[in-house]
């Protein structure tokens, strides 16, 4: 088990876990943390927790310090400058006839790196663009091409469940999701029902898939012919949550059977 604390980066709903690093803090304190993108400002969202390695991305990065007034002032300046940089990048890319749709730009707290994210239908050679931006802002430039799922992760939004998107709040990596998971849970295969706002299959289809698979093992398979209490027929559907299944009898009428009654007949 690892001691961790949940931190959300500025302008993000997602919570990342960091090592407390023996620093005393309270919820909603602003802190400086080390991330893959460099030093960034974050907000403490949880008390110190103990989590297993399966729930974490190891190795853990540390909380470096409580944010000073100078850090907070620099963050405000960085956000203003990043907005200007985003508009400049759009103008320069347009002049260079690069097919790029810019989404966001961010400076690391120390301004050692300026990161742009963009969408594009195909690979883009942005080397000249990066050079021009580096000559203007005198810092390392990173241009990240992302997909539609990454866009949802970056921007966030409200899912069909009415809650903030999983990818934007707590998922560290995108789960592998397949249409078979929707079938396994007897969901309508209507794309408007099983696709997220990114247009891809809902990440949450994976959450209960294993449980549905385990539950179905206790039921007679669809298409199985069974006989219970002298009534013979073919299993045509399951209701796993009610623990019942529907049997079509020889006269084409249907009857709902409790699964425990079926199990007791085995």
Biggest sheet character: 6 strands, antiparallel
Query: Unreliable segments (pLDDT under 50, ≥5 consecutive)?
Result: none
- DSSP strand (E) fraction? 25-35%
Tally of separate helices:
8
Compute the number of strand runs: 13
The rounded distance between the terminal residues' Cα atoms is 44 Å
Structural class: alpha+beta
Principal-axis shape equals elongated
- Over all CA atoms, what is the radius of gyration? 26 Å
Indicate the mean pLDDT: 87
Q: Helicity range of the residues?
A: 25-40%
> H/E element string?
EEEEEEHEEHEHHHHHEEEEH
Any overview of this molecule?
- The chain has 266 residues and is an alpha+beta fold.
- 28% of the residues lie in helices and 29% in strands.
- Strands 1, 2, 3, 4, 5 and 6 form a six-stranded antiparallel sheet that branches. Strands 10-11-12-13 form a four-stranded antiparallel sheet.
- Strand 11 and strand 12 form a beta hairpin.
- The chain starts with a strand and ends with a helix.
Write the layout of secondary structure elements.
Elements: E1 2-9, E2 15-18, E3 30-35, E4 38-44, E5 49-51, E6 63-66, H1 69-95, E7 101-107, E8 113-119, H2 127-137, E9 140-145, H3 148-155, H4 166-169, H5 179-184, H6 191-194, H7 209-216, E10 225-228, E11 231-239, E12 244-249, E13 254-258, H8 259-264
Helix pairs in contact: 1-2
Quick description:
Helix content is 28%, strand content 29%. The chain has helices spanning 69-95, 127-137, 148-155, 166-169, 179-184, 191-194, 209-216, 259-264, and strands at 2-9, 15-18, 30-35, 38-44, 49-51, 63-66, 101-107, 113-119, 140-145, 225-228, 231-239, 244-249, 254-258.
